[in-house]
Amino acid sequence: MMPPAIAFPALLQDFFQRRLIAERGVSAHTIASYRDTFELLFCYVEQRTGRTASSLTLKDLDAPMILKFLDHLETERGNSSRTRNLRLTAIRSFWRYASVRDPTSLPTAQSVLAIPTKRFDRPALDFLSREEVEALIDAPDHSSWSGQRDAVLLAVLYN
Q: Is the pLDDT of residue 157 over 90?
């Protein structure tokens, strides 16, 4: 006989209280980011399905729904790929926890966890020209002790 599935609202509350706060001790900023992710997700799912967050089940948050939500973030909300990936990280973290707490959700969890992060272009690192480096090293006052110290520190950092 299989154990009864854990209700989604209870599982989500347990995720925030037990997993994030008690076990992992994440920062308040992380909790706020994860909270915002789920608020956005619930609003999106409610608009698409007409079901409130309290009536959702784990099966409602399957991979196709999550993919549509992530596309919605980029196309309609104008979020960048980095923000999309951050939201996906929060969702994946929840699904990892849900798969351990509710083994009946493993097939759905597996499909959600398989969603890849989106690649994005990283800005190229620019370097200072030789003249700019020389200007930085020559900037401290070489007549004072602290100026000589600063010049040496800048030269060491450059080298």
A: no
> Please, are residues 105 and 3 in contact by the beta-carbon 8 Å criterion?
no
Tell me if 88 sits within 8 A of 31, measured CB to CB: no
Place of tokens 């900023």: 29
| Dmax (CA) of the chain | 84
pLDDT over 90 percentage in the chain: 58
* Residue 1 predicted with pLDDT over 50: no
The pair of three-digit structure tokens given for residue 134, joined into one six-digit string: 């020389």
Model pLDDT, residue 97: 94
- Tell me which residue has tokens 């037990």: 18
pTM of this prediction exceeds 0.70: yes
Give the separation between CA 151 and CA 75, rounded to whole angstroms.
50
Q: Give the tokens for residue 83.
A: 């923000």
The closest of 2, 4, 6 to 101, measured between CA atoms, is 6
- CA 70 vs. chain centroid, Å, equals 12
Tokens at residue 35, please? 């909270």
Among 115, 14, 15, 10, which Cα is nearest to 62's? 115
